[in-house]
Amino acid sequence: MAMNENFNYSELCRLCSLKSNHQLQIFDKEGEQRQILFKIRTLIGSVTTKEDVLPKNICQKCLYKLDMFFEFRASCMATETVLKNYADTLKQLAQSVSNQLSIVERGTGAPATFLNLLVLVVLAATIREKTCFVKIDNKHTIPFASIVACK
Hints:
The chain is α+β, with helices and mostly antiparallel strands. It has four helices and four strands. Helix 2 packs across helix 3 and helix 3 packs antiparallel against helix 4.
């Protein structure tokens, strides 16, 4: 089988192996500015070096996909961080409310304890983006707030 005389291996895209008129060099100045090598290594895990025998170009279509996937990955990672922080905050807030309720129910809390509890209930309502109605229970020497209903 004869090779096409016009075939030039180095003109192929590093990622899709297609030949294109509009390619970018991975290791030139623009390639470095656009962090192509970093994105390839991060997303694909490919060991890409100037010294390897594989093509050093990337076509516009693959470059677009690489950029979009890199942005998507960064967005997913940021979202995960925000959600974990949100969950941790809710967990800490629930623990604080529980601790404050225990202090008030035992009657060992100072009047400031009730105020702290009320602030925590308002914070919980704000974080949960719900309007909460607070009922004051007069059974205890120091009244405490309990959430009756949330809408």
